[in-house]
Each structure stands twice: as structure tokens, then as C-alpha cells.
Amino acid sequence: MTCILGLSGGIGSGKSTVTRILTELGATTIDADAIVHEEQAAGKPMLKEIAAAFGDQVIRADGSLDREALGALVFRDEDARARLGQIVHPPVIAEMMRRAKAAVDANDRLVVLDIPLLFEGRVSGRGSGAIMDFDETLCIWVSREVQIERTMSRDDCEAAEAERRVAAQLPIDEKREMADHVIDNSGTLEDTRTQVVALFERLTNSAAH
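Above: the chain's sequence. Below: its structure in C-alpha cell form.
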């Protein structure tokens, strides 16, 4: 029996770190962001839709997506974020569901769907959380202060911009309350790994019975 785990968190919480550990342990991981990047490659229909919606200012000279320019637009404008979501979410969700079904058909023990806006979808009644069913959900948690610090470092931006990006998502403490499981990723990598290993064993043992 397969356990399907919906994994999320907030910007700067370290979802990719936890996903990497789960992959190393033997889980099948499906990353929404990775699929988004695939679908937004030059020449893909999604990129053409984005250009039509937001203009050539978000397209680089080589025909690829200027993610910084697009981010600058959508993190400041709720309507723009919603418009981008309408373009991105349906094909990405469809591809995630296709890959998840293949993993279930192959009897993989644990399938992890890494979805940044999983809990936002459940709150709104739309999006990934409303379309996909999970056996369990996991929130990768750090404090808001750590989110801002890590976002500044990762995106090379000022504190005000990092705060805007954090504020554009559902507060991470609310996500923590909605999740079945929580990984506190504010400590050392070894602390995080210990928590992830324990959760992996719990979920895979449950799925085996």
C-alpha cells in the first residue's frame, strides 16, 4: 500500500532540504516547482500564455522566462498572482497527478508531493489542495524571522522585499496548525534529518500494514 504525503511550508522554510532527505531514504518525490520550470521552458505553451498575460517584460532576450521580473510583478499584486495561478496550476497539477498515479501503480511505499501552495489551496477551496487527495500532510516550519533571513540570502534581496514575499503566502504558523505532521527546520541539518527519518519510518511502516 502506498502512502501519499502532501509536503509544503513557506518561502525560506527549506522544503527542498526535507524533500532531498526523503528521496535519499527511498521516497518517490514529485516537485511542483520542478514541473513548473519544465513547463515554462522556451517554446512551451505555458510560457506563451505568461507572455500574453504579463507582456514581453517578463521574457528574456533568449526567449526564456525572466523569473525575477515576473516575481517582482506577482509578489506585489494579488490579482497578478491569481492570474499567474490560473495559467500555471492546471497543467502542473495534471502532471503531478499523472506521476503520482504511476508511482502508486508501481506500489511505491511513500509518494511525496512537494507543493508550495498546498495549504493556500485548502483555505481558498481551490488549487492543488482541493484537487489532490493526500493520506497525510507535512508542514516544514521555521519562524517568520528565519523565513525573512533565508529569503534575503537566497534571493539576494532587501528585508522589505523578503517581507513582501513572505506576506504573500499564508502565515507559516497557520500552515503548521493545518498539517498532520511538522518538521522544525530551524535547527541544524542533523536535527532536521533525525525528524525526517523518524517520520519516514512511521509513514512507511503504517503503509505496510
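The chain has a mean pLDDT of 90.
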